[in-house]
Prior knowledge:
Aminopeptidase, 2 domains
Amino acid sequence: MTVIVRDVRDGDAEGYARVRRAALPFMLATAGQFAFDWAHAHPASRARPLVAVTGDGRIVGTAQLRIAHDSPEPGIGSVNVYVDPAHQGRGAGSLLLRTAEEHLAEHGARTLYSWVLDAPEHRAWAGRRGYSPSRSAHFLRLGLAGAVLPPLQAPPSGVELLTAEDFAADPRPLFELDAVTTADEPGDVSVAMDDYAHWRKTTWEHPLFDRSLTTVAVVDGTPAAFSAAQTDGLGRYGTGMTGTAPAFRGRGLAKLVKNASLHRARAAGCTEALTGNDAGNGPMLAINAWFGYEVAATEVRHVRTLG
C-alpha cells in the first residue's frame, strides 16, 4: 500500500475526524471541530495538520503538531500521531512523524512532546524513534444514561450556580478563571494564558463548547470554580476542564459545579460522559471516581530532544 503525507485540504476534516475516532474513541472528534481549529490556530503556534493518504485517496493517519507559543519556555513543540488501527504497521505513522519533526525543528523546536497510548507496541514504536516516557494520563468514561449521579444539592450560602451563557455579554471573568486554574494544572509544559482575544475566538466560540452545560460557581459575586462542557451533537458530553481558583479551594466547589453540569447534560439527552486526567492529579481523579467514572485507557507522554 502506497502512502503519502500531505497538508490537510478542504474536505479532509471528515476523514481526519474518522481516524481520530477510530484511534482514540475516548475523545470527542468531529469534522466541524477540526475545521474550526485549523482555521483559528494561533500564527505563533506554527500549527500544521497533516494527513497520511493511500493511493485511492483514503485518509488513514493524522498528525497534530504545534509550537508551544503560550509557554514561557522557548523551543518546545508537540506532535501527536494517530493511525487508523486497520492501517497500522504500513509506514503511515513514521512518515507523519518525520514530516512533523522536520517542520517543528525548522521553527525552533528543540524539545518535542508526544502522547502515546500505554500499550507495549505503541511505547516500543515511540522508543525506536528516540522518545522517552515521562508522565501519564487517563481517559475516563461514564455511561451517563444509566449512571446513579449524586443528588443535586442547594449551593452553600453566598454561592450561586450559573452557566457560561450567563456571561455571554462579557466572558472575560471566565477567561481569567480559566487562566488562573490552568496555570497550576499538572503537566510537562507550563502555560501562561494572557491572550483574551485568542481565547474568546478559539475557546468561547469553539463549536464543541456548550455554554448551557458549562457550570460556574460564583462566590459573593466572584467566579470561583467552573466545569467546562463540550458536546458533539451525537449524545457525547466531554469535560474540557474543571477547576477552582486557588483562593476558593477546599470548599467542594469542583464537585458542586461538575455535578450540576452532569445532571444538566443528562437532562439534555447526553448518554456518555468523557474526560481525562493527569495520573498525578489525585484530587480530580478522586472527584471523577466519586461520580462513577472509570478508566477507559491510559496514555504516556513521551519526550525527545532534537539536535
